[in-house]
Design brief:
This protein has 2 helices and 16 strands. With 329 residues, the protein is mainly β. It has one domain: Porin (Beta Barrel), CATH 2.40.160.100.
């Protein structure tokens, strides 16, 4: 009898609930072309070609939203099941000041860490963050944090997670940015002799100046300190600390741009950072062509030059086409 009453109440309220809910969806295509001609042996030389398809659908009530979907990478030259589809399933809250996500949600457009700390191949092979994310914004800046559970401990799999903070404060043309990341690499459940827990910590603190977005020419200049700490428990004598000078310049005029990054000083050890930052001197310059600038479609081509230790030049070509079709209210 109680169950019947409960069902009657649900049916009675369903028209009201239905009117307050909004159905939305997102369809995403990404074309990936990344040719890495690295002869310095400081990083892996490889060619990555493929396409990614993703969709999400969900319900929104006021500031609350739930979404579910799939995300799959087809890497050219491999079978369709070479990469397993990734489940997208998360809750999101948004208002004018706060944002919060919990579940498995897209990495792109959620966090944007420098390549020194988090490399761009994570967007190819680990497109979702599995954990939580939060951000608070003010008129003069914002601060965000996330936790990503990378690997669950089993008899043979190590337990991995990363946690990060990023933010910015600004006044007119001036700004300061901060990035911090911890990666914890614990052991598998079955102990292997000689295997130890590893901890990686990295940070980047910069200050700079930039143009306003409505200017014909947009860009920025910033400089600061890049730092890293690494320890392997029972092996290293505490943390191994390194720091270096970091500078970056970026500019865009119409459909063309340039981005140049300099690192000089200590040799860093980041779990998921670009391996070039393991050298003491590294200078990267990207020549960029924005060949598609539709509101729903973005196409870019990068010609990248990597100068290592001032005496070895590697190069890279990247092409990306991103198409997003979504229904929002």
């Amino acid at each position: 009898m109680r169950s019947l009453k409960f069902l009657l109440i649900i049916f009675a309220l369903s028209p009201i609930i239905g009117k307050s809910q909004i159905f939305d969806y997102l369809i995403n295509f990404e074309g990936i072309g990344d040719n890495r001609e690295y002869h310095s042996q400081k990083a892996l030389s490889q060619t990555i070609l493929g396409s990614r398809g993703a969709f999400e659908a969900g319900l929104k009530i006021d500031n609350h939203m739930i979404r579910a979907g799939l995300n799959h990478l087809l890497e050219f030259g491999s079978d369709i099941d070479f990469h397993k589809p990734k489940l997208t399933l998360y809750y999101q809250y948004n208002d004018k000041i706060k944002q919060f996500k919990f579940g498995a949600f897209p990495r792109r457009n959620t966090i944007n860490f420098p390549l020194a700390i988090l490399t761009d191949t994570l967007l190819y092979y680990r497109p979702n963050i599995e954990g939580l994310y939060g951000q608070i914004a003010w008129p003069w800046g914002h601060q965000a944090g996330f936790v990503d559970w990378v690997s669950r401990q089993t008899a043979i799999n190590r337990e991995n997670f990363m946690a990060g903070l990023s933010g910015e404060v600004f006044h007119k043309y001036l700004f300061m940015e901060n990035y911090m990341l911890l990666f914890h690499d614990a052991k598998a459940a079955i102990h292997i002799p000689g295997d130890h827990i590893k901890d990686y910590f990295g940070y980047l603190i910069t200050g700079g100046i930039r143009t306003f977005n409505n200017d014909r020419f947009t860009g920025y200049m910033k400089a600061g300190v890049l730092g890293s700490l690494f320890r392997e428990r029972s092996v290293t004598n505490g943390f191994i600390y390194q720091n270096s000078f970091y500078a970056e310049v970026k500019g865009k005029l119409k459909n063309y741009g340039i981005n140049s990054t300099l690192h000089t000083g200590g040799s860093h050890r980041f779990a998921y950072g670009d391996k070039f930052y393991g050298t003491k001197n590294y200078w990267r310059t990207d020549l960029i062509w924005y060949f598609i600038n539709h509101p729903k479609v973005k196409g870019t081509f990068n010609l990248s030059f990597h100068l290592i230790e001032w005496n070895c030049l590697d190069q890279q070509q990247q092409m990306s086409i991103i198409y997003i079709f979504e229904k929002k209210q």
